[in-house]
């Protein structure tokens, strides 16, 4: 493996958790709910997946536990913001703080434990293509899942009836309710999906990226995922681009720091954020008309009966 | 199938003793109503009479506190709009239930039950468009469409479900007279095909044009069911309002004095995604007259108001001249100091701060003049001022100095207009002075505007209510897509001419002549 290939591979590993978590949040936000608890759900996903994987010595059970933990956290959030129509910003921030704390408790007995890497899935023939072969055709399952999710979510939102319903509810929940669309049920499912994705992203961090648990290991990735959704203008395709630009810039600035350019390391650390914002801004400018957030994003829905 | 109104079968739908209580307020009080197959039935009433509550109950959006609904003689409970549609009800909402960022086809598809694909939706859309003359492009995004086109989407959306009863809530409030007539032709056709229509309105002319039976609501109760063609407009209005409606009195004739406001070639770029640019606006208002600005919503009225009030600044000072002073680049307070006053369209949140008391709300426009001194609020002066506004403009308040949000729409509107008039401004600019206000308050407000003008001020009224403008204005112009037509004396305008200007047809013809 050349250094170049190694760098490309680390870019994929850095981008995948961002992409998965952001895709989940995108679906939640398209239904009109702003869940700022991604970081907390991700931390719980990481802690629970690592705990389960070590306890049962099963990566599969670990992943399932991570997804379930994210979804449970999301269900709690849904109860508060849908059931009691509470403020979504406040509830989301509380969820993050709660998730970071609880994950520390769950993960405490497993500090210091290690997991073996997951064997990559090799697609014979294609993986022998120079440079890009190993990059695209010899990855772990998570990477393939993240690509599949991007495509499926894009198709779901634009081509299916249920996706149209979800978008309508996010755009204008009062109109949607007047038309008889199931506002609360759709939002509940969208929030759960967002939580499951955040949990899956957390599982990836713990089982593939670091292969150990330490408190606060999500290191703000949940917040980056949230920002990516906004900069990608709530579009799955742009989200993929944004996640990879961010991942690439993160890895490259690390290498640049190692190479000791005459630039302060703090400046280099800021590069990924700047690069992602600029790239996605250019994308939306090129598109001509700026794209707004879903019309009902963040607004609590109280049916008028 | 011609309407069989005379047949002895049960009515299509029958409401018996429908009541709806919100806390202490009885929005509907024992309402009885029946609609025959193929009938166009009007539901008449002032704002707040309970019309919208009643149709929302019928359409399953809200639950009645008491009463029974019978469909073709069978008692039914309509628990949701989905159930209402399954029975054969369709509803065109007053404030459209559309999704601005989505296309016409998507907006229609989202409301359909059963199996469909976007291709079949497209096919049926063009079929219905042809039959009823409702032209629509399936791939346009809704936010690019006019109000008339948006309403067509709502109607097509209902017709695709083959409804037995179509409910229209104030359908013409956003339409030009020509678009309204187009709608009436469609409704006549539907009725002839056997579809019943419940037509909700407070406009008597339309009801007389369309309906043979009308149920009149007042304060949540049915006061009469009449044949609108057999009664005079004045009789019906009296039933709706409960007492005889007086006309606006104008003692002094229209005798304009000097110029108070001059707008000279004012251009302004649009704000935001759906904003409207102002293009080469010219306007003069003289002391002693009311100048009306007509137009369909969204044609630049709010932008014009913002430019005149100084909420947005023009690029040249001399684009706007108030009382002889070029003030295009001066802010709101500076213009107020020139004795100008402004009443925006939105009562709560723009003209008044909802959670502030009325006395505190006087500060919004009087801070520049009398109720504050070197940064401190003169609390007693503000209270005195609020009391005198409340007294002079008959503002009914639940307590001495309530929060603005505790007032009803009509009373708050009287307060915010009174707050400006009490300053005796040389120039008053008001946007939609009686929008969503009951008839009594509307009359008081219009009278106050006319009196102010006759006392020597210049008054500019921006309104979508043509009847209102014909009542109060001395001069009128029409705004269409950011262009303002030339001012003409009110007597020189006909409703048809105004309608053509609203559609931009007159402009196009003018351009054609110019070529």
Features:
heterodimer, A: 305 residues, mainly alpha, ABC transporter involved in vitamin B12 uptake, BtuC, two-stranded antiparallel sheet, 12 helices, globular, B: 515 residues, alpha/beta, Rossmann fold, 2 domains, 7-stranded mixed beta sheet, 6-stranded mixed beta sheet, 23 strands, 23% strand, disordered N terminus
Calculate Rg of chain B over CA atoms: 24 Å
Structure class of chain B: alpha/beta
N→C terminal distance of chain B: 51 Å
Q: Radius of gyration of chain A from the CA trace?
A: 19 Å
Widest sheet: strand ordering of chain A? 1-2
Domain tally of chain A: 1
Give the count of helical stretches of chain B.
18
CATH architecture of the largest domain in chain B: 3-Layer(aba) Sandwich
| Number of structurally distinct domains of chain B | 2
Helix content estimate of chain A:
over 70%
Write up this protein.
- The complex is a heterodimer of chains A (305) and B (515).
- Chain A is an all-alpha fold.
- Chain A has one domain (3-115, 122-286): Orthogonal Bundle (ABC transporter involved in vitamin B12 uptake, BtuC), CATH 1.10.3470.
- Helix content of chain A is 71%, strand content 1%.
- Chain A has 12 helices and 2 strands; from the N terminus they run ααααβαβααααααα.
- Chain A has a two-stranded antiparallel sheet.
- The model of chain A has no long low-confidence stretch (mean pLDDT 88).
- By secondary structure, chain B is of the alpha/beta class.
- Chain B folds into 2 domains: 13-241, P-loop containing nucleotide triphosphate hydrolases (Rossmann fold, 3-Layer(aba) Sandwich), CATH 3.40.50; 259-514, 3-Layer(aba) Sandwich (Rossmann fold), CATH 3.40.50.300.
- Chain B contains 18 helices and 23 strands.
- In chain B, strands 13, 16, 19, 20, 21, 22 and 23 form a 7-stranded mixed sheet that branches. A 6-stranded mixed sheet of chain B has the order 6-7-8-3-9-10, sandwiched between helices. In chain B, strands 2-1-4-5 form a 4-stranded antiparallel sheet, with helices on one face.
- In chain B, a hairpin with a 2-residue loop joins strand 1 and strand 2.
- The longest helix of chain B has 16 residues, at 177-192.
- Chain B starts with 12 loop residues before the first strand and ends with a helix.
- Residues 1-6 of chain B have low confidence and may be disordered.
- Chain A binds chain B through residues 161, 164-165, 167-168, 171-172, 174-181, 289-290, 292, 295, 304-305, and chain B through 60-63, 80-82, 84-85, 91, 93, 96-102, 106, 109-111, 116, 273.
């Amino acid at each position: 493996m050349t250094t170049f290939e190694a760098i490309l591979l680390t870019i994929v590993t850095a981008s995948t958790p961002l992409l998965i978590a952001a895709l989940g949040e995108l679906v939640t936000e398209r239904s009109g709910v702003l869940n700022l608890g991604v970081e907390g759900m991700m931390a719980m996903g990481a802690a629970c997946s690592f705990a389960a994987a070590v306890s049962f010595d099963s990566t599969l059970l670990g992943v399932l536990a991570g997804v379930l933990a994210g979804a449970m956290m999301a269900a709690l959030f849904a109860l508060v913001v849908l059931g009691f129509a509470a403020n979504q910003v406040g509830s989301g921030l509380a969820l993050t703080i709660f998730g970071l704390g609880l994950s520390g408790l769950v993960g405490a007995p497993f500090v210091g434990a290690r997991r073996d890497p997951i064997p990559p899935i090799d697609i014979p023939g294609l993986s022998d293509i120079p440079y890009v072969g190993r990059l695209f055709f010899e990855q772990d399952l998570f990477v393939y899942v993240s690509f599949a999710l991007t495509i499926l979510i894009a198709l779901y939102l634009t081509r299916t009836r249920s996706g149209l319903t979800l978008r309508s509810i996010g755009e204008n929940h009062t109109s949607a309710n007047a038309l008889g669309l199931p506002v609360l049920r759709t939002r509940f499912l969208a929030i759960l999906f967002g939580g499951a994705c955040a949990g899956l992203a957390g599982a990836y961090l713990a089982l593939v990226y670091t292969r150990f648990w330490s408190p606060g290991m999500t290191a703000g990735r949940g917040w980056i995922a949230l920002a990516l959704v906004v900069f990608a203008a709530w579009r799955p395709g742009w989200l993929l681009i944004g996640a990879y630009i961010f991942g690439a810039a993160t890895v490259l600035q690390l290498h640049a720091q190692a190479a000791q350019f005459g630039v302060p390391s703090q400046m280099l650390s800021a590069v990924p954020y700047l690069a992602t914002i600029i790239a996605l801004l250019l994308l939306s400018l090129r598109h001509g008309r700026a794209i707004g957030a879903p019309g009902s994003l963040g607004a609590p829905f109280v049916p008028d009966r | 199938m011609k309407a069989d109104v005379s047949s002895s079968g049960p009515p299509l739908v029958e409401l018996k003793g429908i009541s709806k209580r919100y806390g202490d307020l009885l929005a509907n009080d024992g309402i009885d109503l029946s609609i025959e197959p193929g009938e166009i039935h009007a539901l008449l009433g002032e704002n707040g009479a309970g019309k919208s509550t009643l149709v929302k109950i019928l359409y399953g959006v809200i639950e009645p506190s008491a009463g029974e609904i019978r469909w073709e003689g069978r008692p039914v409970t309509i628990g949701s709009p989905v159930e209402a549609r399954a029975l054969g009800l369709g509803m065109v909402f007053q404030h459209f239930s559309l999704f601005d960022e989505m296309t016409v086809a998507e907006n229609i598809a989202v409301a359909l039950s059963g199996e469909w694909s976007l291709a079949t939706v497209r096919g049926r859309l063009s079929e219905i468009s042809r039959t009823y003359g409702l032209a629509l492009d399936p791939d346009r995004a809704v936010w690019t469409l006019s109000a008339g086109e948006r309403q067509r989407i709502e109607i097509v959306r209902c017709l695709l479900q083959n409804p037995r009863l179509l409910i229209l809530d104030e359908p013409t409030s956003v339409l030009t007279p020509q678009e309204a007539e187009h709608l009436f032709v469609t409704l006549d056709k539907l009725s002839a095909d056997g579809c019943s229509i419940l037509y909700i309105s407070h406009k008597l002319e339309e009801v007389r044009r369309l309906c043979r039976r009308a149920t009149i609501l007042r304060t949540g109760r049915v006061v009469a069911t009449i044949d609108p063609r057999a009664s005079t407009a004045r009789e019906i209005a009296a039933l709706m309002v409960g007492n005889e409606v007086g006309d606006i009195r104008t003692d002094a004739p229209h005798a304009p004095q000097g110029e108070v406001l001059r707008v000279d070639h004012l251009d302004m770029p649009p704000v935001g995604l759906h904003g409207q640019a102002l293009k080469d606006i010219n306007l003069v208002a003289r002391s002693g007259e009311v100048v009306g600005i007509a137009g369909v919503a969204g044609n630049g009225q709010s932008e014009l108001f913002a430019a005149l009030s100084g909420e947005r600044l023009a690029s040249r000072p001399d684009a706007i001249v108030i009382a002889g002073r070029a003030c295009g680049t001066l802010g709101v307070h500076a213009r107020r100091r020139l004795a100008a006053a402004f009443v925006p369209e939105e009562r709560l949140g723009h003209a008044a701060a909802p959670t502030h008391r009325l006395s505190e709300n006087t500060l919004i426009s009087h801070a520049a003049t009398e109720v504050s001194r070197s940064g401190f609020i003169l609390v007693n002066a503000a209270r005195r001022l609020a009391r005198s506004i409340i007294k002079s403009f008959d503002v009914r308040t639940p307590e001495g100095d309530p929060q603005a949000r505790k007032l009803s729409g009509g009373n708050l509107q009287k307060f915010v207009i009174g707050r400006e008039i009490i300053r005796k401004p040389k120039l008053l600019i008001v946007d939609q002075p009686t929008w969503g206000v009951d008839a009594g308050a509307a009359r008081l407000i219009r009278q106050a505007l006319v009196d102010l003008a006759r006392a020597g001020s210049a008054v500019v009224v921006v309104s979508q209510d043509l009847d209102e403008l014909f009542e109060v204005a001395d001069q009128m112009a029409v705004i269409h897509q950011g262009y303002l037509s030339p001012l003409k004396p009110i007597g020189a305008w006909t409703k048809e001419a105004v309608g053509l200007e609203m559609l931009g047809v007159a402009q196009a013809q003018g351009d054609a002549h110019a070529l």
